[in-house]
């Protein structure tokens, strides 16, 4: 009887010890060197602790030309990222950098910029970026000195300025702007906060989305098709038996009490292996807090189990900062709701976790610490083999302290800062008021926090006036 192999997903993991049977796709393609036909091999795989990638290899038997390339195969981040790092010491030159094809790199002190899509994505260091620029500029200098001596002299001067950057005669600032959001600069002080690096996220423009291949349904369809679809929607009603993601329900078919107790299910793709799976969603109420939406995904293909929590209401008028003193096992059992915008800080360990690191989740204090440890292990796993002795010693010491804290052997003070006000920690008092180990501080958000949440551009009153004025002005023309 023939044995059917279990599905391993679109992007199987690349593992040296237990290597799966990876099958490469071979495509006959033209050689760009001799114009004859060569072979291109494509391999879809997943690098542990990093992301899905597509490895491409071309070889030509006629002229011997070969070429290797790697492209990201995972999802594009919802926002672009801008990373500004001040390079002061030799240790900063050794910072590892992951840059994508859409990354632009700028050195402020030299007014020098590498445009996006001018270089392929790579894993390198800050010094490696400078060396690559020097090699590129110096490549045609012998010919340039004969044909254009003035331009060659200017380039020699600029190369000398780049060499001085590696000697660190003065600090300089390296800025990486990536519209895909898939770039990264190593933090040599991890798990402590990096004082020399500033990371900011931004919404992409329509032109930047088009550059990444992201289009809305309105932009993809033509005006004629949209008019036909619009008329059909107005004239026809969608039957209930149509197999769609969101099905309309008739009025009073689901009373509110039954809807809150019902577990809804919809199809999605697994974030780990991209296989088809189901996500369960339920609306529930946390006592002394508010309604939340709990979503859980279980993948039968790779066994992944995830849970995520979304606030049922909108953004609160004020942000909230919650301080919890963890004294023993009773505090480890506290229920915790952490939203996606909430950041964590543990004072005794001098450890800070950003807002989007752990996502939104409903767990306990112990579960929160365990998830934070797993997240730090995964983020450090990509470069663990090449870390220096000092970094390994520091990380081992930190994980030892964190393990002792999870075991309840030391007292901790956890600070949760959520500018949306949608995070919550259970109080040990029956009436829901803060107990002696719980401190809740509400504050007004700054302009920068409102801007990051998109509140500065939000118009909640008379939002239809501008559209009416535009229609009138177009009619007058």
Mean pLDDT: 77
| Unreliable runs | 1-8, 16-20, 231-246
Helical proportion, percent range? 25-40%
- In CATH, the topology of the largest domain is named Jelly Rolls
Proportion of β residues?
25-35%
Task: Kindly give the count of domains.
Answer: 4
The CATH architecture of the largest domain would be: Sandwich
Q: Work out the helix count.
A: 13
Tell me about the biggest sheet? Answer: 5 strands, antiparallel
Write the CATH homologous superfamily of the largest domain: ZPR1, A/B domain
Shape: globular
Spatial gap, N to C terminus = 76 Å
CATH C-level class of the largest domain:
Mainly Beta
Total count of strands: 24
Keyphrases for this structure?
477 residues, alpha+beta, N-terminal domain of TfIIb, Jelly Rolls, 4 domains, five-stranded antiparallel sheet, 24 strands, 27% helix, globular, disordered N terminus
Task: Describe what is shown at a glance.
This protein is of the alpha+beta class and 477 residues long.
Describe this structure in words.
By secondary structure, this protein is α+β, with helices and mostly antiparallel strands. The protein has 13 helices and 24 strands. The strands form six sheets. A five-stranded antiparallel sheet has the order 8-7-10-5-12. It has a five-stranded antiparallel sheet with strand order 20-19-22-17-24. It has a four-stranded antiparallel sheet with strand order 1-2-3-4, with no helix packed on it. Strand 19 (343-346) and strand 20 (351-353) form a beta hairpin. The longest helix is centred in the first third of the chain and has 19 residues, at 149-167. The model is unreliable at 1-8, 16-20 and 231-246 (pLDDT under 50). GO terms for molecular function: translation initiation factor binding; zinc ion binding. This is Zinc finger protein ZPR1. Its main location: other. Keywords: Cell projection, Cytoplasm, Differentiation, Metal-binding, mRNA processing, mRNA splicing, Nucleus, Repeat, Zinc, Zinc-finger.
């Amino acid at each position: 009887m023939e044995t059917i192999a279990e599905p391993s997903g679109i992007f199987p993991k690349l593992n040296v010890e237990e290597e799966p049977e990876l099958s490469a796709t071979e495509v006959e393609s033209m050689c760009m060197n001799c114009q004859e036909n060569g072979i291109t091999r494509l391999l879809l795989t997943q690098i542990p602790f990093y992301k899905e990638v597509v490895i491409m290899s071309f070889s030509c038997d006629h002229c011997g030309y070969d070429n290797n390339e790697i492209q990201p195969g995972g999802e594009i981040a919802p926002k672009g990222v801008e990373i500004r790092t001040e390079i002061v010491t030799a240790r900063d030159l050794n910072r590892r950098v992951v840059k994508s094809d859409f990354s632009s790199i700028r050195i402020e002190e030299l007014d020098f910029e590498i445009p996006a899509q001018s270089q392929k994505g790579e894993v390198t260091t800050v010094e490696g970026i400078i060396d690559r620029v020097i090699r590129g500029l110096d490549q045609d200098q012998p010919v340039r000195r004969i044909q254009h001596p003035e331009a060659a002299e200017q380039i020699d001067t600029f190369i000398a300025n780049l060499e001085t950057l590696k000697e660190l005669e003065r600090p300089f600032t390296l800025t990486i702007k990536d519209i895909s959001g898939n770039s990264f600069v190593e933090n040599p002080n991890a798990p402590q906060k990096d004082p020399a690096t500033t990371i900011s996220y931004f919404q992409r423009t329509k032109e930047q989305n088009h550059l990444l291949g992201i289009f809305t349904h309105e932009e993809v369809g033509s005006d004629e098709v949209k008019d036909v679809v619009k008329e059909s929607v107005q004239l026809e009603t969608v039957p209930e038996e149509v197999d769609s993601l969101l099905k309309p329900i008739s009025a009073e078919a689901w009373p509110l009490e039954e809807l809150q107790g019902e577990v809804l299910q919809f199809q999605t793709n697994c974030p780990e292996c991209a296989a088809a799976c189901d996500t369960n969603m339920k609306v529930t109420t946390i006592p002394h807090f508010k309604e939340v939406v709990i979503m859980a995904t279980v993948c039968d293909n790779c066994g992944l189990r995830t849970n995520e929590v979304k606030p049922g209401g909108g953004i609160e008028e004020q942000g909230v900062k919650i301080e919890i003193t963890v004294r023993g096992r009773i505090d480890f059992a506290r229920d915790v709701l952490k939203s996606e915008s909430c950041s964590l800080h543990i004072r005794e360990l001098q450890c800070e976790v950003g807002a989007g690191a752990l996502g939104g989740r409903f767990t306990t204090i112990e579960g929160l610490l365990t998830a934070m440890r797993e997240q730090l292990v995964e983020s450090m796993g990509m470069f663990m083999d090449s870390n220096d002795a000092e970094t390994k010693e520091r990380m081992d010491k930190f994980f030892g302290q964190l393990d002792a804290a999870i075991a309840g052997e030391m007292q901790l003070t956890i600070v949760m800062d959520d500018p949306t006000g949608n995070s919550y920690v259970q109080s040990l008092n029956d009436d829901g008021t803060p107990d002696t180990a719980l401190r809740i501080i509400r504050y007004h958000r700054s302009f920068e926090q409102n801007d990051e949440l998109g509140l500065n551009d939000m118009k909640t009153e008379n939002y239809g006036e501008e559209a009416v004025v535009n229609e009138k002005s177009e009619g007058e023309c």
